[in-house]
Design goal:
The protein is mainly β and 387 residues long. The chain is built from 2 helices and 28 strands. It is globular.
Length: 387
């Protein structure tokens, strides 16, 4: 499905649901006039506590100053991380559960603004908290926090998920005994050029690099190419590569820092580390998300705990960072945030205050300014904009 067709279908659903509400009809009428480019569609992952909650397909209308729910895939438990394929007609989610049954991976179709469940399989692990597709979209990989491993899930031609084909467990621990007495795999990403798989392990203070061959039934070579030991007690969480793939930016959750690492010939090397808290800050921290601006000139990070901030950095010519701004997330526990594809807005999901807050973004300076657009929703924990 082409994204333009998806947007038009979503607007039609909004129009049909609007009734006589003047503000909603104003939005729908603008759509009928052809102003579809003003909307930003996104998938919202949440933590759930009732059957009607789940994954939401949302539309952010900056011209109207509102966010709307287009549709919801309900009866899915704790879909905390949600992604779409390149064609935008399939959606994959973890179900983050850590009990005896463990978590699940669930596939959905996305058509005419509606999410329809295709199937689910067990993750063969506990608390899957991150999911990604390999470049060929033949496999999904989940990072499993509680069991300290990652799972490899084949994707069928019809988009359904098949039973797990590999579970690769980590071993070890680190210095923060109440957080790092065992492995806690927290993220899995693929390098933009060589296709290697990078695994961030909060429990062992490592980023582990694996060879990945999608032509194989079991695509992961279980003998790592490289292991990067980060500073003890840092707690690697989420990470992102720059467009050329020679710089990795890694959130250190426990120490509330952003690490800069160079990547050459299959090896990672530490370049710099920058604190997310301002000088003199005392209180609980919990660094969470890291994102690059669409033009690759700025980096954004979030910090939870008692800080509850979004931190802005400029990316210098050598890939290092210079602090630009620290702003309140306008809520509690900004577990996740994302930037619209045009770079003009940042949406922050405050998990513990049940809100999404919208910030206007200066394209030249990178600075953020909160707007009046606020949306209340239960436990927003992942925002994924559709291209």
């Amino acid at each position: 499905m082409k994204v333009k067709n998806l947007i038009n279908a979503c607007y039609l659903m909004i129009f049909m649901a609007c009734g006589t509400a003047s503000n909603d009809n104003k939005t729908a009428n603008k759509t009928n006039d052809g102003a579809t480019s003003s909307a930003h569609l996104f998938l919202l992952g949440t933590y759930t506590k009732s059957p009607e909650q789940g994954i939401h397909l949302m539309a952010f209308h900056p011209d109207e100053g509102n966010i709307q729910t287009i549709s919801t895939a309900a009866a899915v438990e704790n879909p905390s991380f949600v992604i779409a394929n390149e064609a935008q007609d399939l959606v994959y989610s973890v179900e983050e559960n850590g009990g005896e049954e463990g978590g699940k991976i669930t596939a959905f179709s996305l058509k005419d603004g509606k999410l329809a469940k295709l199937n689910s399989v067990k993750a063969a692990a506990k608390s899957p908290c991150y999911i990604t597709l390999d470049p060929s979209e033949s496999f999904a990989v989940t990072a499993n926090y509680s069991s300290g491993d990652f799972s490899v899930i084949p994707i069928a031609e019809n988009g359904q998920v098949k039973p797990v084909t590999q579970v690769i467990a980590h071993q070890g621990s680190s210095v923060i005994t109440n957080r790092q007495k065992e492995p806690h795999v927290h993220a899995a990403i693929f390098h933009p050029n060589d296709g290697n798989l990078f695994i961030a392990d909060l429990g062992t203070d490592e980023v582990v690099v694996y060879e990945f061959d999608s032509s194989l039934e079991k695509p992961v070579n279980t003998e790592p190419i490289f292991r990067l030991k980060v500073a003890p007690g840092a707690g690697p969480r989420h990470m992102v590569f720059n467009s050329t793939g020679d710089k990795l930016y890694l959130i250190h959750e426990i120490s509330a820092e952003i690490g800069v690492y160079s990547y050459e010939q299959g090896e990672l090397k530490h370049q710099a580390t920058h604190p997310l808290t301002e000088e003199g800050f005392e209180g609980k921290v919990g660094a969470a998300e890291v994102r690059l601006s669409p033009d690759g000139k700025f980096l954004y990070a979030s910090n939870r705990g008692e800080a509850n901030e979004i931190i802005v950095f400029k990316i210098e010519g050598n890939g290092d960072l210079t602090h630009v701004q620290t702003v309140s997330s306008m809520g509690k526990a900004p577990r996740n945030f994302n930037i619209t594809n045009d770079g003009k807005y940042l949406l922050a999901g405050n998990q513990d205050s049940n809100t999404i807050i919208t910030f206007e973004r200066d394209l030249e300076s990178g600075e953020l300014k909160p707007t009046n657009t606020k949306f209340e929703v239960h436990k927003p924990v992942y925002i994924n904009f559709l291209p």
